[in-house]
Design a protein that fits this description.
By secondary structure, the chain is of the alpha/beta class. It has two domains: 9-275, Acetylglutamate kinase-like (Carbamate kinase), CATH 3.40.1160.10; 284-376, Roll (Archaeosine Trna-guanine Transglycosylase, Chain: A, domain 4), CATH 2.30.130. It has helices at 9-12, 23-26, 35-50, 62-69, 79-102, 115-119, 121-136, 159-169, 208-211, 223-235, 250-254, 273-279, 292-299, 342-348, 353-360; strands at residues 16-21, 54-59, 108-113, 140-145, 174-179, 184-185, 197-198, 200-202, 240-244, 262-265, 286-290, 310-315, 322-326, 332-337, 374-376. A hairpin with a 5-residue loop joins strand 13 and strand 14 (332-337). Helix 8 packs parallel to helix 10 (223-235). The protein is globular. It is an enzyme of class 2 (transferase). One of its GO terms (cellular component) is cytosol.
Length: 377
């Protein structure tokens, strides 16, 4: 008897799906791209495409292909070397996907994204519009990080994170991360033979990070990054499946609800486009440390952040910048567009609304961050 997920509708009713395929599934043991494997994946993706699903593909493999083309003995460790390697390998990666999709009479498109593209509001909306047009035209976008221009300080760092960001951006129904691992275990199976595969978990469960291990050589994303990606997607209301891509016909079977890998469920409702943009920021301009009352007001009572609930102001930022809000233990509670500069925020932290005006005079808003300009974690 085939085991199915308890609520298989999460899978069977998903229309818009972001699929991320890791390097280990697309390369020939580090010897460049495995064209036979890519053809195999294109066949599975085409099957979903013709069943009416809207597919967005996040594909690894550019660096591995670049290494082979340049006959490098090992993956570069410096950023310029990685960027050059990715640029060289990206040519072969896109050509390979385009060729195999054309065999199924499917058009594909190359999309290269940096964190700056998502952090800048105008560029975020432009890329969002482009992706939606491609979806409407029944084109499969092949998405990767634009490694050549990304900086070490502001980059996704792995395609798991990028896939989660894209899933949130296009309001995907499901994110599928395919890897060479079976899914999420309750302990590291490499060091604990008693570790058990978990089939369904809550994406926001803090204990998941304690259970996750490291990654391989060719790829950058270990289980920790995959758990983090699942949490990012969950904040936008998108569930995630992490499954072993070596499983026969894995995509078709998953979409029937069959229990393969681990399903990370989302407790969150869909968030607005503006909140998605806020959540897409990986680099924060500053930080606000909140007291317990402010945390409760934001998370439980769905209220705006007032100056009285701010204990500490960290960093240098201007009005309108995106900052993170953390509790007294340093756990992120929310991100949002702040209504005061760091200098003004430091002057009014902990003050009631009437005292704020005494200190700063007439102000545009009494909220440190308005609820409508905040993404809750």
């Amino acid at each position: 008897m085939i085991e199915v997920f308890e609520d298989k509708r999460v899978l069977t009713q998903s229309k818009r799906i972001v699929v991320k395929i890791g390097s280990a599934l697309l390369t020939a043991n580090g010897e460049g791209l495995d064209l036979e494997a890519i053809s195999h994946w294109a066949e599975q993706l085409a099957q979903l495409h013709f069943q009416g699903h809207e597919i967005l593909l996040v594909s690894s493999g550019a660096v591995a292909e670049g290494m082979v083309r340049m006959q490098l003995p090992a993956r570069p460790t410096d950023l310029p070397g990685l960027q050059a390697c990715a640029a060289i390998g990206q040519m072969g990666l896109v050509q390979a996907w385009s060729s195999v999709f054309e065999q199924h009479h499917i058009r594909s498109a190359q999309i290269l994204i940096t964190h700056d593209d998502l952090a800048d509001r105008r560029r975020y909306l432009n890329s969002c519009d482009a992706l939606h047009h491609l979806i409407d035209w029944r084109v499969i976008p092949v998405i990767n990080e634009n490694d050549t221009v990304a900086t070490n300080e502001i980059r996704f760092g792995d395609n798991d994170t990028l896939a989660a960001m894209v899933a949130a951006q296009v309001q995907a129904d499901l994110l599928i991360i395919l890897t060479d691992q079976n899914g999420m275990y309750d302990a590291d199976p490499r060091s604990n033979p008693e570790a058990k595969l978990m089939h369904t978990v809550r994406a926001m469960d803090e204990q998941l990070f304690e259970m996750a291990g490291g990654g391989g050589v060719l790829g950058r994303g270990g289980m920790v990054t995959k758990v983090r990606a699942a949490r990012l997607a969950a904040k936008a209301g998108c569930p995630t499946i992490i499954a072993n891509g070596d499983t026969e016909n894995v995509l078709h079977r998953l979409m029937k609800g069959e229990v393969i890998g681990t399903l990370f469920t989302s407790d969150n409702d869909r968030i607005t486009a503006h909140q998605q943009w806020l959540a897409a920021h990986l680099q924060m301009a500053g930080r606000l440390v909140l007291d317990d009352g402010a945390v409760r007001a934001i998370k439980k009572e769905k209220r705006s952040l007032l100056p009285v609930g701010v204990k500490e102001v960290e960093g240098h930022f201007d009005r309108g910048d995106v900052v993170e809000c953390v509790d007294l233990q340093g756990v992120r509670i929310a991100v949002g567009r702040v209504n005061f500069s760091s200098r003004s925020a430091a002057l009014i932290k902990g003050l009631s609304s009437d005292k704020v005006q005494q200190v700063l005079g007439q102000v545009r808003s009494l909220e440190m961050i308005h609820r409508n300009h905040m993404a809750i974690y």
